[in-house]
Amino acid sequence: MSALARPGTDLRVALFATCFNDTMWPDTLKATVRLLERLGCTVEFPQAQTCCGQMLTNTGYGAKALPLVRRFVDVFEGYDAVVAPSGSCVGSVRHQHRGIVELAGDDRLASRVEHTVPKVLELSELLVDVLGVTDVGAWFPHRVTYHPTCHSLRMLRVGDRPLQLLRAVRGIDLVELPGATECCGFGGTFAMKNADVSVAMGSDKARAVVGTGAEVLVAGDNSCLAHIGGILGRQRAGVRHLHLAEVLASTEEDPA
Amino acid sequence: MTTTTPGPVQQTSLVFVGMPKFPTAAREALANTQQRRNLRHATHTIRDKRARVVAEVPEWEALRVAGAEAKDEALAHLGDYLEQLEASLTANGATVHWARDAAEANAIVLGIVRDQQVDEVVKVKSMATQEIELNEALEAAGVNAWETDLAELIVQLGHDRPSHILVPAIHRNRSEVRDIFRREMAAVGRPAPEDLTDEPARLAEAARLHLREKFLRAKVAVSGANFAVAETGTLVVVESEGNGRMCLTLPETLVTVVGIEKVLPRWDDLAPMLQLLPRSSTGERMNPYTTMWSGAHDGDGPQDVHVVLLDNGRSHVLADRVGRQALRCIRCSACLNVCPVYERTGGHAYGSVYPGPIGAVLNPQLRGTTSEVDKSLPYASSLCGACFDACPVRIDIPELLVELRGRVVEQEGRTAESAAMAAAAWVLSDPKRLAAAQRAATTAGRVIGGRTVRAVPGLGAWTDARDVPTPPTETFRQWWARERGQGSR
Question: Phi and psi (nearest 5°) for B402?
Fold first, then answer.
């Protein structure tokens, strides 16, 4: 990418931080801001935002998620584009918010949800589909393998967009992860309620990661990375994990 | 809708009563190394085969839609189509029986067997008869029921339970099969050859010789059906081995137990179904044997043809707006083969003849959520979505699992979890409360510094095998306020 290519100029983007990333992984969000601003976007962080409600919904407490959905719409409906560095949270917004509101029988809110949720995009969708870039000017001279998270793959259908972005990173040695499309076993509260199965799935994923010889495992969801990375860490496997946004934000001047 | 009142759920069966909750049963299954290896090999083999043959069909998605629509049409007017099926079958010379539950169905079958004055029946592989535990009921009445499907034979001879819908002995490898044949065949018929090896051809030959004498002797056969066409009164059995064909054609009396959701309105509805089923189940373009029969015909096949239409909780499921899509299931087991949970635990942990993702949504609906295992099944999934992608009739299993989780939560009332979730909802519904809660995390982050966390009291389920991510010293929200001020809303 030439230094002048700023395809995001004139685009105002609201950052949906997601409660998990906001609390636990601020570096991913700072990287997202850095990356989008480098591409010319104006990034805003509406501070009234909180959470998409996925943990409540997927554990069986969908009714309790209704105030969160209402808040989400209040905060984000005025934007043309909303982005989150999380396939899972965006998946919940696009695929579950309608159902939660429908069940509550709030027709007015339902039409606002209908209007808002299609504008909420996962990072790779915004970059490839809206900004039309695959080379974001990143530099990351490491051996990397990429795990496509289930909700980005099967709810959002991001396809190979993240890989297109990674392939264009300068210096990267990108190696294919065997069995990439298989779930890592995180699954939200599944990781606690069915810890043994979750760990069995994660161990197989970790073994596949180690087998690639990669030094960095990359994915678009920090929750899945915390699970696989937690197993790799326990094994002292010598593989670190990093969110896709941080790899794409990395440059020679400011490496990740 | 022709059904107005939901029927009752199934009675808890004797075989599965007292099953532990899924996580407990799964822990044991995970430790069975031979089974883990067998399952991994078998599920990946079928999974890959299925992916290859599905990819060859450009109109696969249209076929899925057609399959789902045919099933939805049948279910939307189920009462009408069942009456039409009964009329067509009766006109074709079959006798139709209605069974509200397992006990009624078993009594009907036993009555027919007794009328024929026999003490044995041969059986075609059938999920409906597994569900009602017909073999156990017949055995209790002194009637031997011989399973003739190769895998069912392995399960029966091994005094085992099926662990997969299509491949009930998937948890066994060939050397285990050899041992079972050598140990068990002699007690119930022609013994296995002394020099039996674990070569697949030798094992198949041993089974063939063992079964042949039963096929030639039997006066009564019992089957299920993959489809029942209301328009023509035609029953359809789709199989691979030809053993089903033997049972369906040789004996004088044929009894078919059919779940009421198996009905299809029209003959033409078979067109999508017979393309969807073999590719989804065995990964074949077409299965080797498809047997169709419409009642009894002079001088051709069984002359005494009975059909038992089985409810056993199905009308209860049908009454549910969201849940009824599970009744589209054609028992192909594609969802089992792609499921990362099933692949590791196998089928026994699900405490039912219907394991895997479809079992996790079907059992809690058919049986209710009163038992430990049925309560836990909606949570036996990481919601990865592979099952929905593989389902040939587009059952949105992840959506259903979430729906059923909601019902379990509602039923359980106040628990420690519900209190925690209510607290989380309260915190998450307001940015000020969230920021306050986050301060606990950043305080912890400052105390921990850069160190790795390997144990947290109360978080053992996570930390037993996984490190814990270290909280940061500053949340993004704080960083933004510090760096960018309050400028943005």
Answer: -65, -40
Burial of A91 (0-12, 13-18, 19+ CB in 10 A): buried
* A92 inside 8 A of chain B by CB: no
Q: Do A59 and B421 touch (CB under 8 A)?
A: yes
Closest CA to B332 of B404, B371, B279: B279
Token reading at B13: 């069966």
Among B27, B384, B454, the residue with its CB nearest the CB of A196 is B27
E strand intervals along chain A = 12-15, 42-44, 81-84, 120-122, 143-146, 173-175, 216-219, 240-243
Specify the amino acid at residue B90. Answer: T
Q: Which of A12, A21, A43, A50 to mutate to test the interface with B (most CBs of B within 10 A)?
A: A50
Per residue in B32-47, pLDDT (tens digit) is 999 999 999 999 999 9
The rounded distance, in Å, linking the Cα atoms of A143 and B255 is 63
> In which residue are the tokens 């998990």 written?
A20
Structure tokens at A152: 């980005």
Say whether residue A226 is in contact with chain B using an 8 A CB cutoff: yes
Test mutation, A21, A47, A239, chain B, max B CBs within 10 A: A47
Measured in whole angstroms, how far is the alpha carbon of residue A9 from the centre of its chain?
23
> Average pLDDT, whole number, for chain B?
95
- Report d(CA B240, CA B246) in Å as an integer: 12
Q: Name which of A17, A35, A226 is nearest A140 in CA terms.
A: A35
Domain spanning A143-249 has what CATH number?
Answer: 3.40.50
Q: Is the dihedral of CA B421, B422, B423, B426 positive or negative?
A: positive
Q: What are phi and psi of B308, to 5 degrees?
A: -110, 115
- Give pLDDT, residue B5: 62
What tens digit of pLDDT does each residue of B407-443 get?
Answer: 999 999 999 999 999 999 999 999 999 999 999 999 9
Q: Which two tokens stand for residue A7?
A: 């395809």
Q: Could you report the per-residue pLDDT of B246-268, keeping only the tens digit for each?
A: 999 999 999 999 999 999 999 99
Domain ranges of chain B: 430-484
How would DSSP label each residue in A115-181? HHGGGEEEHHHIIIIIS--S----B--SEEEE---HIIIIIS--TTHHHHHHHTSBT-EEEPPTTTT
Q: What phi-psi label fits residue A175: left (phi over 0), alpha (psi between -120 and 50 degrees) or beta?
A: beta
Count residue pairs from A and B with Cβ separation < 8 A: 193
Reduce the DSSP state of residue B104 to 3 states and report it. Answer: helix
Please list, in sequence order, all residues whose beta carbon lies within 8 angstroms of the beta carbon of residue A225, skipping any fewer than 6 positions away: A147, A217, A219, A241, A242, A243
Confidence of residue B486 (pLDDT cuts 50, 70, 90): low
- Residues B171-222: tens digit of each pLDDT: 899 999 999 999 999 999 999 999 999 999 999 999 999 999 999 999 999 9
If we measure between CA atoms, which residue out of B388, B387, B363 comes closest to residue B374?
A: B363
CB A132 within 8 A of CB A91: no
What is d(CA B403, CA B369) in angstroms, rounded to the nearest whole number?
A: 13
Number of residues that this document lists for chain B:
489
CB B319 within 8 A of CB B107: no
- Are the CB atoms for B164 and B125 separated by under 8 Å? no
Residue positions counted in chain A? 256
Of the CA atoms within 13 Å of residue B109, those in its CB half-sphere come to: 40
Q: What is the CA radius of gyration of chain B?
A: 26
| Residue B78: Cβ within 10 Å count | 22
Q: What residues does CATH 3.40.50 cover in chain A?
A: 143-249
